[in-house]
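Write out the bound-state structure for iron/sulfur cluster.
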Amino acid sequence: MVGSTDNAENAGAVGVAESSGTAKAAGTRTAGTTGNAGSPADQPGTAARGAALPGPDDPALRADCANCFALCCVALPFAASADFAAGKQAGRPCANLRRDDFRCGIHTTLRERGWSGCTVFDCHGAGQKVSQITFGGRDWRQHPDGARRMFEVFPVMRQLHELLRYLAEALALPVTRTLHGDLRRALRELDGLTRRDAETLLATDVAAVRQEVNTLLLRAGDLVRSRAPGRGGRPRNHRGADLAGARLRNADLRGASLRGALLIAADLRGADLRSADVIGADFRDADLRGADLTGAVFLTQPQLDAARGDAATRIPPALRRPSHW
Ligand code: SF4
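---
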């Protein structure tokens, strides 16, 4: 979270499209190629009809703490737990937030001090958009009159940005080419929505937006899973399954659906998760040592950061190997 100059340090658990995540993410607090659908100007990351569609590696879909007013450290509530050394209410600045700027005073020692929940949180770029676009750079300290609305908009924007990130990933996959028209349309509409004013954002039926987008993401995930390498027979379906603590060592999970699955502390050592759909899966403390996550779709940095792994864990090239592995 806040205080790092490295965006990746602010990564977080997820689950907006499907489920799960840390308490903070739950609201109490990139593949680069494109398919051949459409003109080059319509591809993510390039100008399309006067607007630019974000690509999966777009900086706009990653936390940029330098341009954010520490919204994740103020707007979101969290309870004291194994992930957070102390709790706080929504709209109250965390006691560790520095008073002279919008940085965390302990960001280099968060894990050691019991704040690991902060190290696995990612706003997917929502923080800087609310700070700089929705509220035009007017921070909540100098403009307390707008603080409450800003704190209300942030969790809405975070959910929308997470969906943007998934849509951008799906659109960048050649295997989803039959969906590219729908994905592009959804991405454009959603991106436009995130640029509307605070009132419009607060009036948005986020659940309906999620449902609509999730239908597309489900189809995209199924296309990826259907091409899982070397897999005979039907890929496993563990959608929403409670696999907390499950013994899945060396399991063949190629092309499996693990959408929203609870994999907390699961033993996934040596498991083959290639081309699995892991959207919203909760990997907290899951043991991924030696596992193969190559081509896993909708895998996020926060999911990796929340898990355990080692040098033998294979991850998609767009993601970073967590420093604690
Ligand atoms: S400890 Fe507080 S200030 Fe630091 S990153 Fe976590 S919530 Fe933000």
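---
The CA atoms of residues 44 and 53 lie 5 Å apart.
Residues 7-225 form one domain.
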